[in-house]
């Protein structure tokens, strides 16, 4: 099962010059559209004297949420080529901005597509690409006598993180890569007295008790 995706961990920059037009490119790791808006607004203020600030982003491990913007360039000549480079690199959770300073010579639609594509590719080439796992979240609750048994089970998995809360009973919030989550859920469900909550959002979801 494919449970990984490619992204970047820190911003990077690129550059391209074409017939005296300068294309400054920037790639950022992002998680949501609101974060994209803040970065675009900040760079629009920073490069207020530029002719165009075009961009594209893609979000989510399914790579189904994306958007591009030509910012006044001919339709499809800027945002789509930038987005195309994100697709080609198989990246997600990234935003690429390309700032254009006009050099006095019109490039035509074909020239613009080539320039924006090249500028975006240069930013990607300077970024450190990382592979991350797609994780499932499992919440469990159990009484203290089961703690040692639960811990022995969890320590069988190297790629797992958890946060625990101790009150009247034990509660643990587990994050484990998707390809391993099914087996872990089965093992947890077999422990008598342990409740497995499979949350969809926040604390909602269905609960099963072993």
Give an overview in words.
- With 210 residues, the protein is an alpha+beta fold.
- The protein folds into two domains: 4-131, Impact, N-terminal domain (Ribosomal Protein S5, domain 2, 2-Layer Sandwich), CATH 3.30.230; 134-209, Alpha-Beta Plaits (2-Layer Sandwich), CATH 3.30.70.240.
- Helices cover 30% and strands 38% of the residues.
- The protein is built from five helices and twelve strands.
- It has a five-stranded antiparallel beta sheet, with helices on both faces. Strands 9-10-8-11-12 form a five-stranded antiparallel beta sheet. A two-stranded antiparallel ribbon has the order 1-7.
- Helix 2 packs parallel to helix 3 (108-125).
- It starts with a strand and ends with a strand.
- The model is unreliable at 200-210 (pLDDT under 50).
Uncertain residue segments: 200-210
Order of helices and strands: EEEHEEHEHEEHEEHEE
Strand order of the largest sheet: 2-3-6-4-5
**Count the helices. How many?**
5
Helix content: 25-40%
Cα distance, first to last residue? 27 Å
Tell me the radius of gyration: 23 Å
What descriptive keywords fit this protein?
12 strands, Ribosomal Protein S5, domain 2, 30% helix, 210 residues, Alpha-Beta Plaits, five-stranded antiparallel beta sheet, 5 helices, 2 domains, disordered C terminus, alpha+beta, single chain
């Amino acid at each position: 099962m494919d449970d990984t995706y490619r992204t970047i961990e820190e911003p990077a920059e690129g550059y391209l010059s074409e017939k005296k037009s300068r294309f400054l490119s920037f790639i950022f790791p992002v998680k949501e559209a609101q974060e994209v808006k803040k970065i675009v607004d900040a760079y629009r203020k920073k490069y207020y004297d530029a002719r165009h600030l075009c961009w594209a982003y893609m979000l989510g491990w399914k790579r189904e949420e994306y958007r591009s913007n030509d910012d006044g360039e001919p339709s499809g000549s800027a945002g789509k080529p930038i987005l195309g480079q994100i697709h080609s690199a198989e990246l997600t959770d990234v935003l690429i901005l390309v700032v254009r300073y006009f050099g006095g010579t019109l490039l035509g639609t074909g020239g613009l597509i080539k320039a924006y594509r090249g500028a975006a590719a240069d930013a990607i080439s300077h970024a450190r690409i990382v592979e991350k796992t797609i994780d499932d979240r499992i919440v469990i609750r159990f009484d203290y006598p089961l703690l040692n048994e639960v811990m022995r089970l969890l320590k069988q998995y190297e790629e797992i993180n958890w946060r625990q809360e101790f009150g009247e009973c034990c509660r643990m919030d587990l994050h484990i890569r998707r390809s391993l989550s099914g087996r872990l859920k089965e093992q947890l469900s077999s422990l008598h007295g342990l409740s497995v909550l499979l949350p969809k959002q926040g604390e909602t979801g269905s609960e099963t008790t072993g």
